[in-house]
Amino acid sequence: STTDVLAVENVVVVETKGKYNNDCSTSRSNTNIIINKMITDNIDINITATSAAKNRNNAPADVTRRIMCGGLAGMVAKTATAPLERFKMLYQTGEHGLKSRVAGSTSVGAAVRSASGGSIGVIAMYRNILRNEGIMGLWAGNGANLLRVFPAKGIVFCSNDYYKNLLTNLTTSPSSNISKPSPMVSFFAGGLSGMTASAITYPLDLARGRISGKMAGVDGKKVKHYTSTWNTISLTVREEGVRSLYKGITPTLLGAIPYEGIKFGTVGLLERLFPPSLASPNNENDIKPTSNIWRKMAFGGMGGIMAGLITYPNDTIRRMLQLQGSRGSMHSYNGYWDCVRKVYAEQGISRFYRGVFVNIVRMGPNTAIQFGTYELLKELTE
To answer: Taking the CB of residue 281, how many other CB atoms lie within 10 A of it?
Structure first.
């Protein structure tokens, strides 16, 4: 109202002198200019304060949204690539009942030849699974895997965003204008997120490993030793004790650092090297980045292949440690390095890489689907 404006005019000139101009007069025109500047500043301050308060209030909901998006993305990816995952795990554990002619060789050449499972081809493995377990044997352990993947991948993607922001704030000054975190920050954020998820969900990972890593009919009887997640966990606790649920957790936690670190670090590096293109809409002044989904899929696939290739020997060891002492398994190891020593002495370096080719074929689409689906779900729920 006019009264309010006049009241403001009487205060503005005194309290804002020197802030908005050095020679404030009491003229109506100058006072109006000052009032307009104050209003503009007030709006900016209110917008910033409101935005910060809104972010604080929405923080729990945003964390939940990211966990849900990451979990669903992981479930879609794992289900789509479950048959290849089953092949890989049977190659790693050797619990498939088929014979390999490369066992005992210690040469790197033998390791390369055994990359797809030694002399056991994918077709032979496929037929063996169908003969002993039927078509659903290709997805054996996928139910247990989904129970693990939903919280695990949800935690990985959500905590990765958290660790990435935390490390970026710790390693950069507030005045620096950095749009993307450095590859090193992405590496450590990914490694920490992988360790966090693995530590929380490890018993489910062990259950999945025991279901998928054993073939029914190996002992001449078409009977599966473990049939479900609950069945596996209850039998394991009853026969081997509670501590057995964490067999192989050391290589899992140690492997999570390079695996998730390389994966997210590769994605971070590629995002900096290949920034998103800009698409010009009708208004030339309103330029927006194109969709990130296809970029995330491509970068995620490359990151997954790199991570899977480099960390594969460690993954083989952890799978063998998970199976030791289980039903139908005759192997026993006294820790990580004892397992490495015995496996190398008995079967050579090629044993650590058995099935790596199948894993490379699996990791590309698996991580591409994970990153692409996560980005899509984030866009849909924002």
So the answer is: 9
Q: 94 near 121, Cβ under 8 Å?
A: no
Give residue for tokens 């905590």.
Answer: 159
| Sign of CA pseudo-dihedral 231, 233, 237, 239 | positive
Residue identified by tokens 């479950």 is 82
C-alpha–C-alpha distance, residues 378 and 382, integer Å? 6
Question: For 305-315, what is the mean pLDDT?
Answer: 91
Q: Where are the strands (E) in 227-317, listed by range?
A: 278-279, 288-289
Percent of the chain with pLDDT strictly greater than 90: 12
Structure pTM? Answer: 0.66
Amino acid at 54: K
Sequence-ordered list of residues with C-beta below 8 angstroms from that of 152, at least 6 positions apart, any chain: 74, 197, 198, 200, 201, 204, 205
Written as six digits, the tokens of 333 are: 């190891």
Dist. CA 161–CA 179, nearest whole Å: 14
List pLDDT tens digits, range 147-201: 888 888 888 888 888 898 889 888 877 666 666 778 888 899 989 999 999 888 8
The H or E element containing residue 189 is helix 183-212
Tell me which residue has tokens 């109006």: 32
Q: How far apart are CA 257 and CA 187, in angstroms?
A: 8
In Å, how far are 129, 130, 165, 252 from 71, measured between CA atoms? 28, 30, 20, 20
Question: What single letter denotes the amino acid at residue 6?
Answer: L
Whole-angstrom Cα distance, residue 353 to residue 376? 34
**Which residues, in sequence order, are CB contacts of 253 under 8 Å at separation 6+?**
195, 198, 199
CA distance 382 to 380: 6
Q: Which residue from 119, 96, 111, 113 is spatially nearest to 347, judged by alpha carbons?
A: 111
Q: In whole angstroms, how large is the CA radius of gyration of the chain? A: 29
* 318's tokens: 């952890």
Strand-pairing partners, residue 288, are: 279
Tokens of 230: 């609950």
Nearest of 127, 68, 26, 113 to residue 380 by alpha carbon: 68
